Amino acid sequence: MEYRRLGRTGLQTSLLGVGGGYVMVKEIEEGRRIYRRAMELGINYFDGRYGFTSKMLNPLVKAHRSRYILGSKTADTSKDGAMARIEEDLIELGSDYLDIYYLRAYNHKMLDEHFSVGGSIEALIKAKEQGKIRNIGLAGHSSMSALAKGVNTGLVDAVIFPLNAVRRDAQEELIPACQAHDTGMVIMKPVNVGIGRPEVHLRYLASQPIHVMAAGVSTVEQLEADVAALDRDSFELTAEEEEEIERMRAEQSANTCRICDAVCQPVCPVNIHIDHILYHDVFYNEYRALGLEGILKAPLAPWVKGRMQAVFERRVAVINSCTRCGKCEEVCPHHLPIMAMFDRMLEDHAPLIEAVRAAGWAEKFADAESPYGKPRR
Helix, strand or coil for residue 12? Predict the structure, then answer.
């Protein structure tokens, strides 16, 4: 495993890290098995907080705290709210400190609220002085210019953002800002939410001026495949690999939502949050990765099984509320065929809903402990 200096944090981080967004859908013990295997493979960066991932990590952190670089996040923009979240994270992880604490900043409005008087940045500065966190971070998957603005304040030690062979908008403004301030760069969605082949996406990223890729993994096999993809002496891409990346970029670009801060939602006559439907759903991405048979056999957390039917049925209802006016396609800066993408999702969802309903998951796991309260029906 290669290690890189995470910018001015001075931390030596493994090139491959583990994001918590997909580990969270697994049973507690399965999540711990994934994290243990990651440590055995030389991975030391772990990104949370998602679902019960803190509970999964807790015994490992207590046993080997100095071997881990732990990051967590909050979207709370108030000083008191952010400080409360930090305290909760420390208790759940069983740690005296967090290496990086990220403020979620999806757009300029959120960023400005974080950095306003009485905003969450004040909590992070205080927590850093107290030793509860070691570094201040920003996190976002929408506006790269908002993250760049935050980095340019000089207060940000690390930033986590999406970058992959298809989505490269961070290269325009954010990465140069990070390089200018020696800000650590952590990559989310390195394999384009599982759409692309790890060998191609991860090797492409390894050749970029980034520090760690927080890949979403939900099985030990996925984790081992990601590690194997980076097992090479040089990350300089061959001509054949460059050609494959460009072919893949062309193929996937037409079906990849960039979550560009609700550009399309305001024009929708029925107020559909189209980017949430097309992109930002762990359950659907897990289903696409594992297939119907795979997801039915997977060691999913009870709370996930309890709400999966409702999540998919609700999405179908939202898509069916679409008037097919086409206004979203007219304003999409990436010219996505949104109506066709909706149709494919409806086709994908039908067999899963039928199978989960037949299995009776919603009833069997209705009372399962959940990190997100009761599921909406």
Answer: strand
- Pairing, β 158-162 against β 16-19: unpaired
Q: How are beta strands 12-14 and 3-5 bridged, if at all?
A: antiparallel
DSSP secondary structure string, 167-209?
Answer: --GGGTTHHHHHHHHT-EEEEESTTTTTTS-HHHHHHHHHTSS
Residue 325 CA to residue 88 CA, distance in Å, equals 45
- Residue 370 CA neighbour count, 13 Å, CB half: 16
Could you read off the pLDDT of 230-243 as tens digits, one per residue? 988 888 888 888 88
- Mapping DSSP to helix (H, G, I), strand (E, B) and coil, where does residue 101 land? strand
* 213 DSSP β-pair partners: 16, 187
Pick the CATH number of 3-243 from 3.40.50.2300, 1.10.10.10, 1.20.1560.10, 3.20.20.100: 3.20.20.100
Host H or E run for residue 249? helix 239-253
**What confidence score (pLDDT) does residue 152 get?**
98
Residue 98 token pair = 């967090």
Angle between helices 198-206 and 220-229 (to 10 degrees): 50
The answer to whether the CB of 209 falls within 8 A of the CB of 265 is: no
- Name the token pair of 49: 């907080």
Amino acid occupying residue 111: L
Contact 334, 166 (CB under 8 A): no
The confidence score (pLDDT) of residue 43 equals 97
User: For residue 238, what are its two tokens?
Assistant: 């061959």
| pLDDT digits 0-9 by tens, 111-143 | 999 999 999 999 999 999 999 999 999 999 889
Q: What are the residue boundaries of the structural domains of the chain, listed by start?
A: 3-243, 265-364
- Least Cα distance to 68 among 55, 82, 57 occurs for 57
DSSP secondary structure string for all residues of 121-147:
HHHHHHHHHHTSBS-EEEE-SS-HHHH
Q: Considering the entire predicted model, what is its pTM?
A: 0.92
Instruction: For residue range 239-293, list pLDDT tens digits in order.
Output: 888 888 888 888 888 888 888 766 888 899 999 988 888 876 889 989 988 899 9
